Every structure is written in C-alpha cells, then in structure tokens.
Amino acid sequence: MSAFAALLARDVRLATRAGGSAMLALAFFAAVVTLVPFGIGSEAKLLARVAGGVVWVAAVLANLLALDRLFQADYEDGSLDLLALSPLAFEGIAAAKISVHWLTTGLPLTILSPILALLLNLPTSAYVALVMSLLIGTPAISAIGAVAAALTLSIRRGGLLLPLLVLPLLTPVVIFGAGAVLAKLDGIENGAFWLLAAFSVAAVLLAPFVAAAALRLNLSE
Amino acid sequence: MGARLPPIDLLEATNLACVRGGRIVFRDVTIRVTRGQALVVEGPNGAGKTSLLRLIAGLLSPADGSIAISADGTRIDDREERGAFIGWLGHQDGAKPQLTPREVLQFFAQVYGAASDPSLLQIVGLSSAADLPCQYLSAGQKKRLALARLKLCGCQLWLLDEPLASLDASGKLLLLELLRDHLSAGGMAVIATHESVGFDAKRLQLT
C-alpha cells in the first residue's frame, strides 16, 4: 500500500470510528433540513421550490463541521511533523485529506439527500438533478475547505475563522448547485450543472497545491 | 525506505540562527556530525534545543545560516529532500487516541514503505498493550510506541527531543540500547536532553 493510500485508509477509519466526524456531519445535515419546514411553514409548493437550495445550504454547512479538524488534529498530536518527514509530499497529504473529507462527508450527504428531499416535497423529476449536483459539487467544498483549513492551521481557534474564509468562496457552488435543481423544476436548460462541474474540477485539481503551500508556510513558522 | 536512500556521511549546519516570536533564541551555532556519531544538545529550558532539532529536520526555517547533509558525496540542501533521511522523536508522538499501537505501527510502516514487523511491539515492551487504543496508554508507553516507530522508519539520522523523558528505568535502557545499535550501524543522532546518555558523545551547550 502506498503512503497516500495508507493515510487515506487511516483517516477514513478515524472519521468513521465512534466519535468520528462522519456521522456527526450526516446528523447535522438531516437536522438542518428537517428544521426548515418548521421555520417557513409546510406549504407543499413553497417547500418544493426551495428544496434544492435548502439541501445545498445544509450540505455546505454540514461540510464545515469536519473541516476545522482536517489538519488540526494531525498538527496538534505531532502526526503532521512525522508526515512532513515521510516520503509523502505535502501535495499528497493535502490530496489524501481532501479525498477523506469528501468520502466521509460529501458522499454520505449525497446519498442521504433524496430522503431529505422527500421531506421537502421535491418533485421526483428533480431527484436526479439534486443528487448529480451534490455528487459533482461537494468535492469542491472539500477542496476549498482544505485550503482554508491549511491556512488557518496554526491560528489559535482558527476554526472560528474558517467558515468566514470558506463560505464566500463557496457562493458559486451553492448558486450553481441549487440552480441546477431549479432549472430541472422549471424545465429549462441553463448550464448551471456544467458550470458547477467546471468549478468543481478546477477546485479539486488546484487545491492540493495551494493547501500544500499553506502547510509548508505553517510548518516553517 | 532507508534501503532506497544513499547512506549519509555528514550532517553540517553552519552559523545557524533561530528567531522565534521576534526574539533571537540562538545564533552562530555550528554543528558537524559524521557517521556513527551522536551529538548531545544541552541547555536550560528555552535555550532552543527543540528549535535546533526542528531546524535540522526542516520543520522550521533558520533566520540565518545553512544546513545540509551529504550522502554519497552529494550535498543535499533542500529541506524536504532532507526529511526522508530523518527519524523524528518529539514531545508528541503522532499516536491517534482512537487507534491501537498495532494500527499506528502498521500505518507508519505503510507510510515509510517499510516492512511491518510485529516483533517490534515486543521489543519495546508493548505486546500486552498492542490492541489497546492509544488514549489508554501512559506517557511512557506512548514513548515506547514512538521508539518502535523510530526503529521502523530505518532513517539514518535520528533527531531525538528529550527521548528519556517519561520513560522508566527499563525504558531508558531500551532507548540507549537502540541508540547504540543505531550508531554502531553507521547511524547518526542529535539528542536534546537534560539527562546523561551514558556514553561518549559530542556535546553542544546552548545558552
């Protein structure tokens, strides 16, 4: 097994073991979505209209939960020093962390989303659009989030700064993600899904390098 | 992984200066360690022992001066390249609270590309705690786990920060034995410690 695969396997194990972040993010996601009808009323038409946006906003928020500890846990217990001295390059460490974050947060959220969409009365015709948009869009959240997590690594209580840094950068993801679902509802073709896909691919390809640069900066201070 | 790397002949740091939080911790520190040699770094708390080790490891950038290792006659200046030669034992051991010592060692064996050796846990006296999550280990047991990891990595240059801290008498003997084996096999070590290591070594006093 390569060093990359070993780090991936260890972190997936840590996230899914008792007390890990995976279940927590899922439960948070479900709780936020379930709360919305209590806030805006149970009018079926209205819920169907906002379902895509609500699921997307909740997905972004749930993704933030585990970001804070993405590198922090390894930084605090010395693992990051050891990984820095291992044959694995910082780019590899960052790529592994992004993958783990998506596998334990973005992917489970995507799988759970149809059930929550049912609670929000989303028409069945838009289910595929919702799931596909989450599937293609959530990796961008993990990627951009990892950059922010690496940047705020050595800041005390950097976890509080992190959402402020990440949320503005994720605006396009929410616009295009929710837009793709709305387009399906309205029966129009607006290219939101493809813009989302392009944004996501660019983020995932660039993020490991940017996060690696941020890690180098933090570790040499 | 050690097998794939050329053996290092020399660690050399010239006129190192370290600045932390705007304060000069030390300056004009020059060290030279050759094969089979150990350098013991001494000094009061805050003298910069840990900082010196982090500088050598490349986990900190020097404010001034240069650090290089020579392997097979070639000088390696790049600090990330240097990292692959370094076995690190710090105050924190990278033992995840949720993982067992067996899992931690297996993980690092994969990361280092080394063969996982189940007898290592026995050598460091952890066989009875091998399947206990690390959150239940004592500080001394964690240090023993870190020793097993250090031995596993097969790195030629050991950087040990207070290696004797929190070890019991048999643990200290174990560490010194591992260290002697390492040095007699041509390894090198830089050790920051307050305690006597019990063998002849070069000394560097930081003030």
Characteristic terms for this protein:
heterodimer; A: 221 residues; mainly alpha; elongated; B: 207 residues; alpha/beta; Rossmann fold; five-stranded parallel β-sheet; 6 helices
Verbal overview:
The complex is a heterodimer of chains A (221) and B (207). Chain A has 221 residues and is mostly helical. Chain A has one domain. Helices cover 83% and strands 0% of the residues of chain A. Chain A has 10 helices and no strands. Chain A has helices at 3-16, 21-40, 44-67, 69-76, 79-84, 90-119, 127-151, 158-169, 171-186, 192-219. The radius of gyration of chain A is 18 Å and the shape is elongated. The two termini of chain A are 32 Å apart. Chain B has one domain (2-197): 3-Layer(aba) Sandwich (Rossmann fold). In chain B, helix 6 (169-184) links the parallel strand 7 and strand 8. Chain B is an alpha/beta fold. Chain B has a 5-stranded parallel sheet, sandwiched between helices. The model of chain B has no long low-confidence stretch (mean pLDDT 88). The A-B interface holds A 1-3, 5-7, 10, 13-14, 17-20, 73-74, 76-79, 81-90, 219-221 and B 1, 57-61, 80, 83-84, 86, 88, 90-96, 98-99, 103, 107-108, 110-113, 149.
How is this structure best summarized?
The complex is a heterodimer of chains A (221) and B (207). By secondary structure, chain A is mainly alpha-helical. Helix content of chain A is 83%, strand content 0%.
Greatest interface by residues involved: A-B, 32 and 28 residues
Number of domains of chain A: 1
CATH architecture of chain B: 3-Layer(aba) Sandwich
* Count of domain modules of chain B: 1
Strand order of the largest sheet of chain B: 6-7-8-3-9
Overall average pLDDT of chain B: 88
Number of strands of chain B: 9
- CATH superfamily of chain B, by name, is P-loop containing nucleotide triphosphate hydrolases
- In terms of structural class, how would the helical and strand content of chain B be classed? alpha/beta
Largest sheet of chain A: none
Q: Specify the number of helices of chain B.
A: 6
Radius of gyration of chain A: 18 Å
Q: What is the makeup of the main sheet of chain B?
A: 5 strands, parallel
Shape of chain B: globular
